[in-house]
Amino acid sequence: TKLKVTMVAWDRCDATVITAVNNFLLKVWNSSTGQLLHSLSGHDDEVFVLEAHPFDQRIVLSAGHDGNIFVWDIDKGTKIRNYFNMIEGQGHGAVFDCKFSPDGQHFACTDSHGHLLLFGFGCNKYYEKIPDQMFFHTDYRPLIRDANNYVLDEQTQQAPHLMPPPFLVDVDGNPHPTRFQRLVPGRENCKDEQLIPQLGYVANGDGEVVEQVIGQQTNDQDESILDGMIRELQREQDLRLINEGETLPNPPLNRSHSVNGG
């Protein structure tokens, strides 16, 4: 098999270069002479994550599609720690990205199942205050492009960075309670009525009133009530900008209506 380099990283002081190869080995090279210093084995699938410690030039983190996360001492060529991302009932999850915290005491990883993994020192009670499933309601909204090929949100016809702050929902799109909505930057001081209630009531086809999440209800135009609330918030924001004397961005003309995945 022809060998290919899948990822390259420098240590914090640029003294060494670390390469990940598709034979699942990591190689540590002297950046000045090109001399091979160490071959690190441990992974059994391709590695696409190499992350240097923010201030300790000896420490490098690697992660790959085998679900393994390794912390290496590249001076000695040894493993410091190994974590395996096993997901109950689903096997392992491939690790797609990892980053150290600025203080070097923690690192965060994301995997193929949409999980955020947090590793480090200290207590985890701070993280237990938030729900297990947290997505923005706009995460999978379709996008369109205008005549200038700029990306717009299809529902609101706005550039994504000009839209109001998104709402937090679970994996099924159900809004979280208002106390969690205030965790979103820009919603910290919102009134209760500006945040989404978790549940509502709607009549089904048999005339029975059933409990249903707001995000799944639709109005007479088949627009979800959640999207309708977003549209109204956008309108209020535009009016506020007008009243404050600011100029709204010119709406793009001749928009294309081909939908792109977002």
UniProtKB/TrEMBL annotation:
Cross-referenced Gene3D superfamilies: YVTN repeat-like/Quinoprotein amine dehydrogenase
Presence of the UniProt keyword Repeat in the record: yes
Gene Ontology annotations of biological process type: cytoskeleton organization; regulation of cell shape; regulation of transcription by RNA polymerase II
Top-level taxon in the UniProt lineage: Eukaryota
Pfam family, one: WD40
Biased composition (Polar residues): 253-262
Annotated region described as Disordered, given as residue ranges: 243-262
Cited InterPro entries: Bromo_WD_repeat, WD40/YVTN_repeat-like_dom_sf, WD40_repeat_CS, WD40_repeat_dom_sf, WD40_rpt
Presence of the UniProt keyword Repeat in the record: yes
WD repeat positions: 40-82
Keyword terms: Repeat, WD repeat
GO cellular component: nucleus
PANTHER family from the UniProt entry: BROMODOMAIN AND WD REPEAT-CONTAINING PROTEIN 3, WD REPEAT DOMAIN 9
Record protein name field: BRWD3 protein
Phylogenetic classification of the source organism: Eukaryota, Metazoa, Chordata, Craniata, Vertebrata
